[in-house]
């Protein structure tokens, strides 16, 4: 098999292209990876986006994978074993180049293929899956990095367009019923233990924004000392028959 190492292709410099979608004031566009990694979150900005256009046949990569239903981590052996033409190998090289960029920051990113979801779909007020609007959290300073290479992309929700689900009256009543008790510290602890405190509903008239394809994002999480609200986002609902390729850290 031909090599799929990023060094096999030169150069692998993405073309910067402004997103063709509307972005809120909470998002800032950057010019390159150094700016993406080095810009602090402040002044209400909780999402940074490096807009790019990547060449290569990412659809061929997705189609060539022999993966079960659900989520599969894509390691170098799996990607290197694909039968791809030069365009397909170039797509793999772009994904591996992004892995090396993030590893250079001391992160542990993964490439994933999403071939539908296998988790049970809970009632709306109890959902804590990635397709529900949510914020990521950490016990120490950390950010979330995301890029969709193929398939439907993630969506973001400006924090002033979002209401914590546990604060929505009808949802709170349903959560209290699931908890089996009344208001108080025990209920708040139960919400946190089951991640309900991290999930949100769009307010009336809310306008989510698309993360787009190929663009590399760094978004704020909820952690001690974070200077801005966390970025509220969700994964796309699965499209039957369509696979999604993404990077996440």
Number of domains as seen in the coordinates: 1
Biggest sheet strand order reads 1-2-10-5-12-4-3
Helix- and strand-based class?
A: alpha+beta
The major pleated sheet works out as: 7 strands, mixed
Straight-line distance between termini: 29 Å
Q: Give helix % range.
A: 10-25%
Descriptive notes:
The structure is a single chain. With 249 residues, the chain is an alpha+beta fold. 22% of the residues lie in helices and 20% in strands. α1 links the parallel β1 and β2. The N terminus is likely disordered.
Please give a quick description of this structure.
With 249 residues, the chain is of the alpha+beta class. The protein has helices spanning 33-38, 58-64, 76-80, 86-103, 169-179, 185-193; strands at residues 27-29, 47-50, 70-73, 110-115, 143-150, 155-157, 162-164, 200-202, 209-210, 216-220, 232-234, 244-248. It is built from six helices and twelve strands.
Defining traits:
alpha+beta; seven-stranded mixed sheet; about 20% helix; three-stranded antiparallel sheet; 12 strands
């Amino acid at each position: 098999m031909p090599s799929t190492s990023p060094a096999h292709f030169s150069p692998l410099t993405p073309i910067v292209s402004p997103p063709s979608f509307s972005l809120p004031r909470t998002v800032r566009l950057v010019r390159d990876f150094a700016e993406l990694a080095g810009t602090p979150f402040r002044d209400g900005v909780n999402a940074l986006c490096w807009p790019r256009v990547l060449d290569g046949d990412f659809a061929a990569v997705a189609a060539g994978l022999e993966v079960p239903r659900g989520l599969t981590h894509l390691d170098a052996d799996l990607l290197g074993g694909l039968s791809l033409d030069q365009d397909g190998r170039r797509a793999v090289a772009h994904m591996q180049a992004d892995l090396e960029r993030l590893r250079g920051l001391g992160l542990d990113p993964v490439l994933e293929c999403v071939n539908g979801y296998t988790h049970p779909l809970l009632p709306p007020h109890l959902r804590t899956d990635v397709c529900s609007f949510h914020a990521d959290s950490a016990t120490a300073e950390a950010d979330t990095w995301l890029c969709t290479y193929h398939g439907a992309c993630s969506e973001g929700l400006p924090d002033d367009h979002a209401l914590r689900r546990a604060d929505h009256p009808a949802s709170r009543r349903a959560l209290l019923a699931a908890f089996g008790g009344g208001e108080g510290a025990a209920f708040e602890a139960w919400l946190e233990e089951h991640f309900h405190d991290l999930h949100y509903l769009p307010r009336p008239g809310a306008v989510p924004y698309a993360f787009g394809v190929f663009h590399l994002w760094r978004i704020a999480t909820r952690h001690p000392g974070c200077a801005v609200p966390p970025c509220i986002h969700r994964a796309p609902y699965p499209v039957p028959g369509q696979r999604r390729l993404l990077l996440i850290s």
